[in-house]
Design a protein that fits this description.
The chain folds into two domains: about 100 residues, Metal Binding Protein, Guanine Nucleotide Exchange Factor, Chain A (Beta Complex), CATH 2.170.150; about 150 residues, Peptide methionine sulphoxide reductase MsrA (Peptide Methionine Sulfoxide Reductase, Chain A, 2-Layer Sandwich). A hairpin with a 2-residue loop joins strand 13 and strand 14. The protein is an alpha+beta fold. It is built from seven helices and 17 strands. The strands form four sheets. It has a six-stranded antiparallel β-sheet with strand order 3-4-8-7-6-5.
């Protein structure tokens, strides 16, 4: 009898594991294993005890990511001490958080927009910061990437929508922002840049975790998602603002870029990509951010092609 009960238990556990794996495959998202407490909060919409979370009084510089799927959620500069007993933020990384009416019909629940994991609730009108908003988040719903592991890289390769789309897919990339770099005009806007007279290029700022990727891997990907042999633009987008550029912040990045261009030329590609030192980066207007993901379509002038 004990043997039968034991076998039933083994089969039950196996079925649970299979079901969990099926759920992970069905979502198409790589999900992390969770502790029982994380499952209670993230999957079953529980709440950790106030003042008990490891990030409540934690104010190191870095990025907070979803504990279930590793998607970036919050930046440390948006975190503040609200005194409520849970980590509080007055802003999120664009597109990272989804809002829905809570089951109690009163509060607004916040979940990870990528995997649906429960984060906590959002409140407005408390006048605790200038933004007048508070994301009240469970510590167990998040992981933290220290600031010393966070690096930035800058590229221009035609319309920034497509470059942003593909660079965001790289493992280790935390965030990609579309914007403008390289010119002399302060606080440029899209209308001004499209004239081709500002000196700015449609560019992207890639924030990445250097424990998972590095500048060379990002640059290699950049050279394979656009046509570096086109001098006057990219695909149908013609003009100086659409030129191919790698911006370097260090001599090592410059040398890495030169090395990769040398390899491409040996492989038969007449590379026209410029190498320029980084200058001030200006975020593009909000409607340019995550353009293809928000639209639900694929880039029309960028695609992946093996060149190395």
């Amino acid at each position: 009898m004990k043997y039968v009960i034991l076998m039933i238990g083994v089969v039950y556990i196996a079925l649970l594991a299979i079901n969990n794996n099926k759920e992970k495959k069905m979502t198409g998202i790589k999900l992390n294993d969770l502790t029982p407490e994380q499952e209670r909060v993230i999957l079953n919409k529980g709440t950790e005890m106030p003042y008990s979370g490891k990030y409540d009084k934690f104010f190191e510089k870095g990025i907070y990511t979803c504990a279930l799927c590793n998607e970036p959620l919050y930046k440390s500069e948006d975190k503040f001490n609200s005194g409520c007993g849970w980590p509080s933020f007055d802003d999120e990384i664009p597109g990272a958080v989804k809002r829905t009416i809570d089951s109690d019909g009163r509060r607004i629940e916040i979940t990870c927009a990528n995997c649906g994991g429960h984060l906590g609730h959002v409140f407005e009108g408390e006048n605790l910061t200038d933004k007048n908003i508070r994301h009240c988040v469970n510590s167990v719903s998040m992981n933290f990437i220290p600031g010393e592991n966070i690096k930035k890289a800058y590229f221009a390769g035609g319309c920034f929508w497509g470059v942003e789309y593909y660079m965001e897919k790289i493992d280790g990339v935390i965030d990609v922002v579309s914007g403008y770099m390289g010119g002399t005009m302060d606080n440029p806007n899209y209308r001004a840049v499209t004239t081709g007279t500002t000196g700015h290029y449609e560019s992207v700022e890639v924030t990445y975790d250097d424990r998972k990727t590095d500048f060379e891997k990002l640059a290699r990907e950049f050279f394979e998602i656009h046509d570096p042999t086109q001098r006057n633009g990219q695909g149908p987008d013609i003009g100086e603002q659409y030129r191919s550029v790698v911006f370097y912040s260090t001599q090592e990045e410059k040398q890495t870029t030169e090395k990769l261009i040398g390899i491409l030329r040996k492989n038969g590609f007449d590379v026209k990509t410029m190498i320029k030192e980084t200058s001030e980066f200006y975020d593009a207007e909000s409607y340019h951010q995550n353009y293809y993901d928000n639209k639900g379509s694929l880039p029309y002038c960028h695609s992946k092609k093996k060149r190395f």
